Amino acid sequence: MIFFRRSRLKARAVKQKTRQAAGRTTEALDARLPVAEGGGLLRKPFPDHWSFLLGELALYSLIVLVLTGVYLTLFFKPGMHEVVYHGSYTPLSGVRMSEAFDSTLHISFDVRGGLLIRQMHHWAALVFLAAIGVHLLRVFFTGAFRKPREVNWMIGVTLFLLALAEGFAGYSLPDDLLSGTGLRIAQGIMLSLPLVGSYISMFVFGAEFPGHDVIPRLYGAHILLLPGLILALVTVHLILVFYLKHTQWAAPGRTNRNVVGKPLFPQFMATSGGLSLMVFGVTAFLGGVAQINPVWVYGPYRPDQASTGAQPDWYVGFLEGALRLVPPWETSVAGHTLMWNVLLPAVVLPLAMFALLYAYPFAEAWVTGDRREHHLCDRPRDRPVRTALGAAAVSAYAVLLLAGGNDVAAAAFGISLNALTWVLRTALIVLPVLVFVVVKRVCLALREAELARLAEGEETGRMRQTVEGGYEEEHRPVGDEERYVVLYGSMPAPPPLPAAGRDGSGDGAVEGAGEGVEAGRLRSALSHWFAAGSQPRADSRESGRELRGRPTGGSRSPDS
């Protein structure tokens, strides 16, 4: 007994000394750093839902990219001077190649762990871009881009654009036959620009293609310029997430004025830390067992050769598909040839796509007249037009991605390449329209079914006999949480703008007083089209109004 008492006393003494030391350390740090002010941030709540971890997935993929990229930088030589290979890969022994390709083979076959790190780097790049893309889709379909998060949406789109450029630069560095073909296509895109195309090509390559400067220039952009911009924007993005607070799904107790979830420390950090370990583990597993970009199979780049069945990484596959689908259109003007078959798919299409992405939050706010702050996510079914537009865009992207491998698909399935190309051209026009109509109708049908369930109750599977001798099915009331979520989604959207009068003002216009006649009419028409799709049919609206007047078992009504 005496021994155990002494042990407890010693443990208490050690615990007290530890607390005193921690207190002194905290005071010393707080005198020099804003430690006390940061305590509130550690208790900042974050909603607990898997879809909110997509951003963390991109962040941890970026960390893997930085760590593996630093290791690769120690061994890679970004030179284009010709050398003779005498490394471990005997099939290429004695072959002339650039220093960049020679150092890539050296990393893959002679550096300890080099091939594993190189493949981890490539897989992490694919995961990084995929995570950003899916994260942007989540933000779009849930309306998380609305006020006050328009700037954060634009930062996310810019990050995706920079990630595309970073991925293409890294993909081109080995100077193998596949990446060299991609650089040749990039030069063709530059040359398609009217008047300035040849000047831009000479500036980038330093001479006639391929020159000796493009790999060192891409290397500088890949390890310094683009990563610096990406890390800076990621920092700003995270600061805005903390400042604006996180969006959350509608549920009892969740409003536009609060956030319900796990505190940052320790619960959310534990969840996020586990995800980081999973990202590291999965990329390491893929790097060890799933071969990717075996440059030794392609061989060094030579301008007189091209890879058969060459496919770029998925994130630029839509550009490749667009180039393959546009017919060979050319126009000669004053001795200059305009190559529409390259200019339209490779320059105009990406510019238009990113311009639409940047402008959409402001365009939707202008059309709907909704300038309120939104901190609760929309369910995709509650905004049928927006959901249908996004689904149509995704279908168009899928067609272009498939077109980027039309030669491989035609050879694999034994069909005509020309016939497949015409099918994809037709699908690029017809499929998005069809997807828009179908998705919009599905969203409206889901909303009507939910409101009908609220009005009639949930089926129990039991029948009962009425006093008249007939039979009817028993129903039980829908739960309070489901009722709350459905009714929040069916709350009226901002009222459609009234049709503009002859003077362009309109009676009671929401924000169109200063617009011209044609602009007011256009805005009114678009507002009716967009908002009408957000409302259920007349009979379902009556059911919703009736239910909104009933008590919901003590659950609080949502804030607008």
Automatic annotation (TrEMBL):
InterPro entries: Cyt_b/b6_N (IPR005797), Cytb/b6-like_sf (IPR027387), Di-haem_cyt_TM (IPR016174). This is Cytochrome bc1 complex cytochrome b subunit. SUPFAM superfamilies: Transmembrane di-heme cytochromes. Keywords: Membrane, Transmembrane, Transmembrane helix. Residues 506-517 have a biased composition (Gly residues). Its EC number is 7.1.1.8. Residues 25-250 form the Cytochrome b/b6 N-terminal region profile domain. It catalyses: a quinol + 2 Fe(III)-[cytochrome c](out) = a quinone + 2 Fe(II)-[cytochrome c](out) + 2 H(+)(out). The chain crosses the membrane at residues 57-76, 122-141, 153-173, 185-207, 219-244, 264-286, 338-363, 384-403, 409-439. Residues 495-517, 530-560 are annotated as: Disordered. Residues 538-549 have a biased composition (Basic and acidic residues). Its cofactor is heme.
